[in-house]
Amino acid sequence: MNNENNNEELEMDENHLIAIRKEKLDELQKNGKNPFEVTKYDIKNYSKQIKDNYEEYEQKDVSVAGRIIAKRIMGKASFCTIQDSQGKIQSYVSINDLGEESYKLFKTYDIGDIIGIKGFVFKTRTEEISIHAKEVKLLSKSLRPLPEKFHGLKDMDLRYRQRYVDLIVNPEVRDTFIIRSKIIKEIRNFMDKNGYMEVETPMLTTVATGDAARPFITHHNTLDIQMFLRIAPELNLKRLIVGGFDKVFEIGKNFRNEGMDIKHNPEFTNMELYSAYEDYNDMMNIAEQLISTVAKNVLGTTKINYQGTEIDLAPSWKRISMIDSIKDVTGIDFNTIKTDEEAQKIAKEKGVEYEEIKNTRGHIINEFFENFVEETLIQPTFVIDYPVEISPLTKRKKDTPELVERFELFIGGREYGNAYSELNDPIDQYERFIKQVEAKEKGDEEAGGMDEDFVNALEIGLPPTGGLGIGIDRLVMLLTNSASIRDVLFFPTMKPLT
After folding, report:
1. Going by CATH, does the domain composed of 171-317+379-488 fall within 3.90.870.10?
2. CATH (one of 3.40.630.10, 3.40.50.150, 2.40.50.140, 3.20.20.80) for 2-152
3. pTM of whole model > 0.85?
């Protein structure tokens, strides 16, 4: 009950302060000083730039702008601190420099207001680098107080919903997204240096395929057809390999209408690359080099700490088959379990659940891996040679056709990448599409559809090709030590409050 009363009091206080701020705005507008009529401001300098180069800026005139985050009024002289895109800087403001009218106006400004300051750089008696203001101009009025004035912005749900406020009051959040930008930039630099061309393919597709996932469905009014938000760009990128581009990659959004947790958001950023005349061994090499290079260039090291666990991203990474990894952890050797019935029996003995429409040996092998092995793979590990049943777009292994040349990359017990030696046999691909369609008809909502045009592309001829997908959001989580995918997305998907 006390908490409810406190919340009501806080809401009343906030509403009262909003009303006061609106009164101040009304007064400004009546006096012809409407801040919302200001269209631009001549920014010449930034806080970090000034602080990092004080000797160069000492006693020099500067022009900065930012949000007031602190203010101290002391009669005829005051201090305020503004926050710009690079950090914070203090300003000394006095009646002698601004004049009586402008100084009186400055004293009415609120925390959260956006102002421009022109003046010269100096150090206070406490050696703090500051700006001695000659001119202060209100550029935008904040009508709502920042949450730190009341109870802070600690509620994670509210922080995700109001990321714009989170970025203001929690500066470390800004650092995460700066690192995210650097990571993506370094990925692009790496791909460019290795001869890959960046391309863009459609987000809207007529067939939900490219991976096993439940799609988002929409309707195109003009064409009067059902369409899907893409699950993955895979098939279109392989069409480009057919068309003669040997090395392509795309960084973009994928969409999956599935569960949400600390590792999953319905829309997420992924990178996929395809290279003609290479296989999944080459993809392991490039994944290893890409991630270790990005870590080195962004963080200055390949040794990181993720949620209390030391991880070394330096090459060379462990490689192990899915079946061997299960044997190592559980003692069960699926090389000796040959039939679906035998696999179902051992699953029941070990308490491993599986869907009746996914009751094959291959599906059960995957369930054993996810139940017992995945969380144990802390250091970077390539798990290779997956069952064909769960890999409809992958080339079979010559000596063991029930397996395919596929790997997934695991770090810290999570998947970070998925790669194949791409299936380029149009007859085999058509038959696997048929099986997917049959599975969908039996109720498997994650099964893909039939893409006859892709089969047609394979009939034109796809060279031997290696393909790799890397989850950008998860990689950013890893390199910023972020616990949840929501921490590395500016605007994660949220259910509306009303």
Report:
1. no
2. 2.40.50.140
3. yes
